[in-house]
Amino acid sequence: LAENLLYLAMRLCKALDRRRADFSELHPGKVRNILLVSSTALGDALLSTPAFRSIRLGYPNARISLLLNAAYRELFAGHPDIDEIISYHAGWGRFFRLAQVLRQRHFDIACILHGNEPQATPLAYISGARFIFKLPNTSRFRFLLTNREPLLNWDDFGHGIEPRLRVAQLAGGAITDFHMTLPVDAVAETEAMAMLKAQGIDDGTPLLGLQPGASTSSRRWAPANFVELARQLLDAHPGLRVVITGSAQEKALCREISAAIGRERAWASAGEVPLRLLPALLKRCFTLVTGDTGPMHLAVAVRTPVVALFAVSDARRSGPAYDLDRHTVIQKWRTCNPCLSKRCPYPLPICMENITLDEVRTAVERRFSAFAGARSGD
């Protein structure tokens, strides 16, 4: 009901709007305020950072505001391409309050890089932005967009960074590469190192990261696999230590895995390390073993090699997109047809079980050898 009422209201407002929003009317020299929307998951926000850079390079003197999921505000605070972060809270409870906040900013352009629909496009329009860009442009609110044609969906793009960059460039952003940007400041590194030292992990200790959780069960490798992987690696490398990362909601899972490995050599950091320190913690690891997760993208952003495990999702769209010589992607097939993805009925998804312990261990050993070689100067 809320969506349908919003749709009718937007139709009426657009019909009464006398502003021309054609590409020919966009004059970059007159742009003062820009709204970027990336209000979904952590990984989605990180995939948007190349577009942040594109817009900043294209509009070096404009004020750039980012509408971001409130949970990630601290993580992106101080991002060099963003002047202001506006918190997004899902649901309809704060919709009108947020619309009022956006309206006060007098935006000239809005770029929806990855937003919650049916709210993202209407919010961009309500903000007062004359020019609104979004890809894919297939939602029912596409009549509000400047780039209504040609009609493009997800299948028209490759990696998830690509449509975001295309949106930025449609809006006048500069051509740039796929590298994600998430600076790690010295204070965060100092705090993260102090937490590691409290666990008996000094600066010279090789540290392996394990990320067993994921946003959906279909993206998770079995906990028993993480346990056995860690045991074999710890037996082979006595000086190795393990950190098990995750959100506060994954605390019990991470502690269960830590206990099975042996808490004296495996630290369950979930619920103890705040999100703002996670990039610094991941930067300290020689590699991170993970499914298709936000921490995977964080690790890639801070140049930590990943061993990324994929089955339901497609690594060509959401895996590492650059520095491919630093990362190992293990891609398996979808076992079920049709795949129910987020509604997977299996507590331990059978497609992820196609990823064998041996191939993951081989990939980690290869990363460990590269790490040890770099440290010794070989």
Q: What's the gist of this structure?
A:
With 378 residues, the protein is an alpha/beta fold.
What does the secondary structure layout of this molecule look like, with pairings?
Layout: H1 2-16, E1 33-38, H2 42-47, H3 49-58, E2 63-69, H4 73-76, E3 84-88, H5 95-103, E4 109-114, H6 120-126, E5 131-134, H7 161-170, H8 186-198, E6 207-211, H9 223-236, E7 241-244, H10 251-261, E8 266-268, H11 278-283, E9 287-290, H12 294-301, E10 306-310, H13 315-318, E11 328-331, H14 357-376
Parallel strand pairs: 1-2, 1-4, 2-3, 4-5, 6-7, 6-9, 7-8, 9-10, 10-11
Helix pairs in contact: 3-7, 9-10, 9-14
Description of the molecule:
The chain has 14 helices and eleven strands. The protein has helices spanning 2-16, 42-47, 49-58, 73-76, 95-103, 120-126, 161-170, 186-198, 223-236, 251-261, 278-283, 294-301, 315-318, 357-376; strands at residues 33-38, 63-69, 84-88, 109-114, 131-134, 207-211, 241-244, 266-268, 287-290, 306-310, 328-331. It has a six-stranded parallel β-sheet with strand order 8-7-6-9-10-11, with helices on both faces. Helix 3 packs parallel to helix 7 (161-170). The longest helix has 20 residues, at 357-376. 43% of the residues are buried.
Could you tell me the mean pLDDT? Answer: 95
Strand order, largest beta sheet: 8-7-6-9-10-11
Q: Calculate the terminal CA-CA distance, rounded to whole Å.
A: 65 Å
Q: What is the count of DSSP helices, taking H or I runs of 4+ residues?
A: 14
Report the count of strand segments: 11
Structural class: alpha/beta
Proportion of helical residues: 25-40%
- Residue windows where pLDDT falls under 50 for at least 5 positions: none
Gyration radius (Cα, Å) is 22 Å
Shape by Cα distribution = elongated
Strand content: 5-15%
Report the sheet with the most strands, covering strand number, pairing sense and barrel closure. Answer: 6 strands, parallel
Listing every helix as H and every strand as E from the N terminus to the C terminus, the arrangement reads: HEHHEHEHEHEHHEHEHEHEHEHEH
Query: Based on the structure, what is the oligomeric state of the protein chains?
Result: single chain
